[in-house]
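User: Just a sanity check before I run the rest of the batch. Below are the structure tokens for the first item. I only need the designed sequence back.
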């Protein structure tokens, strides 16, 4: 497994606000990835489940690693595969895991998401609930539990804003993971309680557009993430270290991207890992014209505030790795 270049120990602290270390493509090496990232200054990892099949893995990982903040949710891609008892099971995981946040949930009209019923209501058939209905139910659960919620949105920001307006506001906060929406939508989303989490996918956006969008985000709503094992940063002048896996292990696993627009960033052999959050930090800081240390501390404080809800391990152990 390739390792990212060693970084000297420093006072910098980082919070990977959204990742999937339980993903089968990297789960076997997740403990080593957590240790390496921790040594580089990554103090926390918000690990998001995506379906009933992996919630128990996220729960176990959080029990094994104090730095892991568990999150449970049903991703829009897996809406058709959910069981009839999915909501009761989700509630059970939260009851058994009081430190958990909600996520990953959301809306998707990308190349994969468009194959899944988006908003059409099918009465008297719970198996055919739409993406929007499943999303709304989980948003309501997050409000009931007073937990932050991590949201996936691909080519559906208008729909997202409408649903959030109908369901919100969200005092516990909404994390828009790998935010790639427009600058013009930031204000309305922020007013509903949204935070804007930035990943390696941002390197695929035209830099002038990315800078304009970043400058529109309130400084107290900026977060950083890796979305590992996806969203490997791609920069011409920066050497990025991937996790190398056999292509057969990655052929059928989940990709948190729109393959039409992000295909150039995907590789069956090269997967992302949390230590690469330093690359995201460097890139975002350069666009915001801030020092890396300033952005690191800013984003860390923002993430700590977001994840410091009653029962969370973050508020009790903010310095622990």
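Assistant: Here's the designed sequence for the first item:
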């Amino acid at each position: 497994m390739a390792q990212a270049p060693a970084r000297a120990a420093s006072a910098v602290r980082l919070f990977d606000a959204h990742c999937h270390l339980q993903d089968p493509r990297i789960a076997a090496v997740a403990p080593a990835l957590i240790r390496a990232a921790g040594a580089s200054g990554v103090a926390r990892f918000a690990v998001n489940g995506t379906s009933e099949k992996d919630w128990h893995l996220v729960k176990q990982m959080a029990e094994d690693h104090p730095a892991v903040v568990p999150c449970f949710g049903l991703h829009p891609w897996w809406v058709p595969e959910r069981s009839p008892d999915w909501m009761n099971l989700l509630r059970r995981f939260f009851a058994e895991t009081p430190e958990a946040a909600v996520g990953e949930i959301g809306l998707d009209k990308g190349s994969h998401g468009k194959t899944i019923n988006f908003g059409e209501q099918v009465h008297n058939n719970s198996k055919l609930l739409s993406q929007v209905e499943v999303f709304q139910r989980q948003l309501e659960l997050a409000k009931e539990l007073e937990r932050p919620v991590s949201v996936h949105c691909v080519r559906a920001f208008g729909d997202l804003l409408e649903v959030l307006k109908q369901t919100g506001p969200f005092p516990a906060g909404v994390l828009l993971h790998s935010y790639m929406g427009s600058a013009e939508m930031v204000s309305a989303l922020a007013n509903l309680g949204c935070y804007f989490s930035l990943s390696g996918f941002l390197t695929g956006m035209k830099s002038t557009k990315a800078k304009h969008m970043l400058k529109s985000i309130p400084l107290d709503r900026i977060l950083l993430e890796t979305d590992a094992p996806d969203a490997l940063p791609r920069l011409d002048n920066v050497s990025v270290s991937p996790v190398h896996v056999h292509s057969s292990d990655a052929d059928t696993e989940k990709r948190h991207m729109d393959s039409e627009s992000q295909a150039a960033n995907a590789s069956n052999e090269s997967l992302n890992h949390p230590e690469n959050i330093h690359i995201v930090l460097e890139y975002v800081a350069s666009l915001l014209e801030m020092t890396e240390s300033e952005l690191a501390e800013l984003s860390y404080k923002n993430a700590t505030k977001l994840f410091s809800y009653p029962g969370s391990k973050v508020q009790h152990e903010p310095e622990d790795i």
